[in-house]
């Protein structure tokens, strides 16, 4: 076999590709569980009490509302509850409340609302009381 | 596995059309299957969008019945289409015809790389069945709106969710909703099959278009880039967009889809359709369509023959009507342009700090793209493409120019972005490079293949009607390529 530069480059590319895809396989196999699936289970437990469409409120976190994990919680709520539109406001008929979103003690943002469903991990659905 | 059936129905219907176009070699047959896969998903997404817009919900049996009926009609029309006569000329032979004793080594090595890559893809899909962040926050979220809200107007709800990029086209969401419609329920298998299908089609199109040992090496190089490989099961639209870019370039510049005689219009129609599908996949695809249109116009002017241009426009127009209609009639404006005045954009363009920031971030991400197992793989391959474009000219120069202009347009968008530049570049540049990676590899290896032809094999490939190079696109090197729509007929 003639060892030209082209052959050497070809061998390097193929060996490198093999090492890369083996490493990628190992990384993929070692990946942890999907957090989206876990969050989805939580919000699915609340969806049964909701109408099939329309807006649903979502209580803002008192602090660090734009933290990645909190953004993810809000986004997964939307992903799970579609085609309802989940909005970060509390003046709606239904409001979702994450367990760590409420202020300590009495949270006046939830005035006029009462919990009607709670998931395993403590995510709650509040509904506005009749006046 | 009704999800798989949903994908196969349009693939078969379009496959019949492609078969009737006169492509007969084994390489062309495999390439046609890959093309049928991506075009099948693309066209079926348009049908699904149409059905949903007129009020036929994906959860209803009428949706599946209408879809099946339409594809049966399309397949039947394909069967009744006159098959293009085979060329009386000697069959085009790629460099693979020069088989050496150990030539099986490369296909075998590529096979091992491809199988391990498939294992990685399946394992990643199992670990994150809903896909990456953007997949569930954008693409699959839109798909859920289309599927769950299709009975009334509730599916339009995602247009009001600003953070989920409501202006993004519907190729992927409508395809996912369609697959769910066939399955009868939402399954994570549907979007995974679509994502993996696009990945396989993308690599297959590049490998078969290049052909021979260069094809196998190109396929290995493509899959060895772990950032690209990781994007395949991500369920985002970047690999589908990459697939349509490769499909367009393969049909336009490759010789695998070259057909003789009156069937010669088929590649132009298909190239037009594939480029328009890029615009129906993701906003970046609009830039690609415009660039390909510009090239088609230049070719038509140089040849003084606008027939190929017209056939390309004929292929692209129905899809572009849907894409433009979606943008104008349904979707809100893009967050990138909303509220931006020309004065603000010009001010940003004149700001040297913004340019330095974007250049620095793009260079940094490009160098570490596919790390830790690759260092500067994207810049190195880009430099090789640029060097070949200068040295060889011909289609390599045109393809490299298209990709260079795509990259330049991404750069301009970053410089003028209304968002925080660091955040915008850091969260998207890797995926934008994924969009261009397969086409970049295709460009380099098509160039390598053409420069590697021996005079004997070259004479067997070039038909008597085909020139060595195009006037005005003259090569500086000893050999240029004779390929696809780019072939200039002087008779």
Structural write-up:
The complex is a heterodimer of chains A (131) and B (491). Chain A is α/β, with parallel strands linked by helices and 131 residues long. Chain A starts with a helix and ends with a strand. In chain A, 40% of the residues lie in helices and 17% in strands. The mean pLDDT of chain A is 90. In chain A, strands 2-1-3-5-4 form a five-stranded mixed sheet, with helices on one face. Helix content of chain B is 69%, strand content 0%. The longest helix of chain B is centred in the C-terminal third of the chain and has 31 residues, at 421-451. Chain B is globular and about 55 Å long. Residues 87-97 and 454-484 of chain B have low confidence and may be disordered.
Defining traits:
heterodimer, A: 131 residues, alpha/beta, 3 helices, 5 strands, 17% strand, B: 491 residues, mainly alpha, 19 helices
Helix-strand blueprint:
The complex is a heterodimer of chains A (131) and B (491).
Chain A: H1 5-30, H2 35-47, E1 55-58, H3 68-81, E2 85-87, E3 94-97, E4 113-118, E5 124-128
Parallel strand pairs in A: 1-2, 1-3
Antiparallel strand pairs in A: 3-5, 4-5
Chain B: H1 2-20, H2 26-53, H3 61-80, H4 105-127, H5 133-148, H6 171-183, H7 189-210, H8 212-224, H9 226-231, H10 238-253, H11 265-281, H12 284-303, H13 307-330, H14 342-349, H15 352-368, H16 377-392, H17 394-415, H18 421-451, H19 455-461
| Strand runs of chain A, count | 5
Largest sheet of chain B: none
What is the overall shape of chain B? Answer: globular
Low-confidence sequence ranges of chain A: none
N- to C-terminal separation of chain B?
52 Å
- The Rg value of chain B, from CA coordinates, equals 22 Å
**Strand order of the main beta sheet of chain A, please?**
2-1-3-5-4
Helix content of chain B: 55-70%
* Category by helix and strand content of chain A: alpha/beta
Low-confidence stretches of chain B: 87-97, 454-484
User: Which strand-content bin applies to the residues of chain B?
Assistant: under 5%
Mean pLDDT of chain A: 90
Estimate percent helicity of chain A: 40-55%
Number of helical stretches of at least 4 residues of chain A: 3
Specify the number of helices of chain B: 19
Multimeric organization: heterodimer
Structural class of chain B: mainly alpha
**On the 0-100 scale, what is the average pLDDT of chain B?**
86
String of helices and strands of chain B: HHHHHHHHHHHHHHHHHHH
Query: How would a crystallographer describe the biggest sheet of chain A?
Result: 5 strands, mixed
């Amino acid at each position: 076999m003639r060892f030209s530069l082209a052959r050497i480059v070809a061998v390097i590319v193929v060996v490198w590709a093999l090492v890369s895809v083996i490493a990628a396989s190992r990384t993929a196999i070692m990946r942890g569980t999907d957090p989206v699936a876990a969050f989805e289970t939580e919000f699915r437990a609340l969806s049964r009490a909701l109408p099939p469409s329309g807006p649903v409120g979502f209580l803002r976190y008192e602090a660090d509302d734009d933290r990645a994990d909190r953004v993810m919680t809000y986004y997964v709520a939307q992903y799970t509850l579609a085609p309802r539109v989940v909005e970060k406001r509390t003046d709606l008929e239904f409001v979702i409340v994450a367990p760590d979103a409420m202020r300590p003690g009495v949270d006046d943002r939830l005035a006029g609302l009462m919990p009607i469903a709670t998931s395993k991990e403590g995510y709650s659905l509040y509904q506005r009381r009749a006046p | 596995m009704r999800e798989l059936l949903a994908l196969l129905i349009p693939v078969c219907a379009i496959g019949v059309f492609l078969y009737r176009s006169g492509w007969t070699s084994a390489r062309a047959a495999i390439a046609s299957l890959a093309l049928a896969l991506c075009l099948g998903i693309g066209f079926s997404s348009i049908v699904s969008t149409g059905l949903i817009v007129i009020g036929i919900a994906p959860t209803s049996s009428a949706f599946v019945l209408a879809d099946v009926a339409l594809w049966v009609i399309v397949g039947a029309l394909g069967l009744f289409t006159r098959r293009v006569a085979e060329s009386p000329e000697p069959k085009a032979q790629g460099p693979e015809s020069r088989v050496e004793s150990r030539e099986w080594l490369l296909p075998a090595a590529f096979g091992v790389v491809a199988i391990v890559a498939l294992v990685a893809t399946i394992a990643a899909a199992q670990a994150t069945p809903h896909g990456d962040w953007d997949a569930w926050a954008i693409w699959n979220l839109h798909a859920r709106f289309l599927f769950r809200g299709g009975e009334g107007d509730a599916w339009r709800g995602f247009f009001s969710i600003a953070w989920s990029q409501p202006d993004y086209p519907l190729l992927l969401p409508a395809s996912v909703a369609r697959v769910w419609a066939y399955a009868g329920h939402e399954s994570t298998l549907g979007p995974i099959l679509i994502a993996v299908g696009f990945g396989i089609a993308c690599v297959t199109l590049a490998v078969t278009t290049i052909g021979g040992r260069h094809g196998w090496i190109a396929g290995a190089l493509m899959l060895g880039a772990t950032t690209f490989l990781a994007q395949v099961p991500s369920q985002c639209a970047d690999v589908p967009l990459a697939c349509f870019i490769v499909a367009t370039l393969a049909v336009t510049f490759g010789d695998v889809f070259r057909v003789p005689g009156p069937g010669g219009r088929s590649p132009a129609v298909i190239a037009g359709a594939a480029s328009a599908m890029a615009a129906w996949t993701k906003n970046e695809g609009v830039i690609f369509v415009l660039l390909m249109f510009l090239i088609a116009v230049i070719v038509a002017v140089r040849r003084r023959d606008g027939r190929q241009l017209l056939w390309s426009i004929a292929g692209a127009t129905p899809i572009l009507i849907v894409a433009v209609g979606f943008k104008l009639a349904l979707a809100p404006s893009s967050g990138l342009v909303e509220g931006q005045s020309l004065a603000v954009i010009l001010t940003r363009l004149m700001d040297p700090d913004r340019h330095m920031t974007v250049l620095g971030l793009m260079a940094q991400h490009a160098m570490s793209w596919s790390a830790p197992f690759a260092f500067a793989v994207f810049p190195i391959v880009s430099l090789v493409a640029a060097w070949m474009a200068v040295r060889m000219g011909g289609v390599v120069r045109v393809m490299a120019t298209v990709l260079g202009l795509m990259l330049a347009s991404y750069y301009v968008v970053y410089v003028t972005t209304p968002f925080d530049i660091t955040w915008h570049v850091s969260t998207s540049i890797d995926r934008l490079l994924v969009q261009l990676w397969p086409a970049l590899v295709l460009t380099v290896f098509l160039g390598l293949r053409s420069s590697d032809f021996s005079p004997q094999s070259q004479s067997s490939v070039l038909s008597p009607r085909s020139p060595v190079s195009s006037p005005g696109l003259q090569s500086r090197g000893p050999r240029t390529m004779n390929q696809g729509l780019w072939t200039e007929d002087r008779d």
